[in-house]
Amino acid sequence: MKVVLVDDERLALIRLEKMLGEFPDCEVIASYLNAKLAISHIGEFQPDAVFLDIHMPGLDGLRATERIHSIAPDTEIVYVTAYDEYALEAFQLGAADYLVKPLNRERLSRTILRLRQRITVKSKSPRDEKVLYHCLGPTQVRRLDGNLEFLKWRTIKVKELFAYMLLHRGKVISKNVLLELLWPELDERKGLANLQTSINRIRTIWKDTVGEGFISIRYAQNGYVLEVNQLQIDAEQWEQELRQLNPVSIEHASEHERLLDMYGGNFYEEESFVWAEGERQRLKALWLQHAQQLGKFYLSQDLNIKALSVYHKIQNQDPLYEDSYLELMKIYARLNDTGSVDKQYQLMIRMLEQEEEIDPCRDILEWYAQWKQPDKSVLNH
């Protein structure tokens, strides 16, 4: 297991690292005398465990835990302190263990054993009993064995027919609606023949790729009904979990990040299905609203690196969204990274000229002009 040590006493760090070195599966990857410095690297390292002193100047161990959990949610925390009165609060924060100095090998052995057990449990994810159909980003299916498969559609019409029926599953869709949607140029006889052939192909593709029993298509009331069994759709799962999220906080930030990354791309982004545009824009707006909320929260907590990550994701998702460039420039300015500020500005100019042939909005132009001035104090808000 990868371990990080944090203690403001250098001798305590040396002694603990020496003791941990006696455990073959324990690797100390970094040691810090300062909690804030440690936190700035823990997000990158994603260690299995952090051995953390409680009484330290600047940022004590208990407050540091919340920040560590926000950037490395799977990292276990072991408190190492000369005081035993904080044990209750420590375990309320989810600590794996609480060690009182001076340490002895027998007690440390029990801690290592506990860490091994907790890390092993986390590494074993329960088998999902449902097939997951991905329509956010690349269209694919996660089978029961966990493998991702691309459904081998014979034609784009077959893929679009399935996508449309899945969106309206459980409802009767008249043959006339499907013919007008997919084969408006054909006469009714040829259109119906194509429709029946496409439905048969959908059944075969699902049976061959995933197995039987997950989808069914039946004829009803001069139309067709698609129904599913033990099948989840990622867009619906994502939206449901998004609406159930707790308000963003240090404690819940990791869940917000997970939901942000769960949005794998726009609704059927590989295809230009006209009927999908409304749903595509609705889901994209939900994601953008959530991303902005998380980005603003990280800025309010002075977690600039985390905020950078969020706004870069916004920019990648929607390169024409000007506010992402402005927020990134402001963050880089606070970090005194002048090269990145200029890079973001030039990237925005090129993108808007190539795609929209427009200039940036006045607020961005004014901010950048002020930033180029020698006195940048007006930008520190």
Descriptive report:
- This protein is an alpha/beta fold and 381 residues long.
- It has three domains: 2-123, 3-Layer(aba) Sandwich (Rossmann fold); 131-232, Arc Repressor Mutant, subunit A; 319-381, no CATH class.
- Helix content is 52%, strand content 13%.
- The strands form three sheets. Strands 2-1-3-4-5 form a five-stranded parallel beta sheet, with helices on both faces. Strands 8-7-6-12 form a four-stranded mixed beta sheet. Strands 9-11-10 form a three-stranded antiparallel beta sheet.
- Helix 3 (61-71) links the parallel strand 3 and strand 4 (76-81).
- Helix 6 packs across helix 8 (188-209), helix 10 packs antiparallel against helix 11 (277-300) and helix 11 (277-300) packs antiparallel against helix 12 (304-317).
Describe the structure using short key phrases.
alpha/beta; single chain; Arc Repressor Mutant, subunit A; 381 residues; 12 strands; Rossmann fold; 52% helix; 4-stranded mixed β-sheet; 5-stranded parallel β-sheet
Task: Give me the secondary-structure topology.
Blueprint: E1 2-6, H1 10-20, E2 27-32, H2 35-45, E3 49-52, H3 61-71, E4 76-81, H4 87-92, E5 97-100, H5 105-123, E6 131-134, E7 140-142, E8 148-149, H6 156-167, E9 173-174, H7 175-182, H8 188-209, E10 215-220, E11 223-228, E12 231-233, H9 234-243, H10 253-262, H11 277-300, H12 304-317, H13 322-334, H14 338-355, H15 362-371
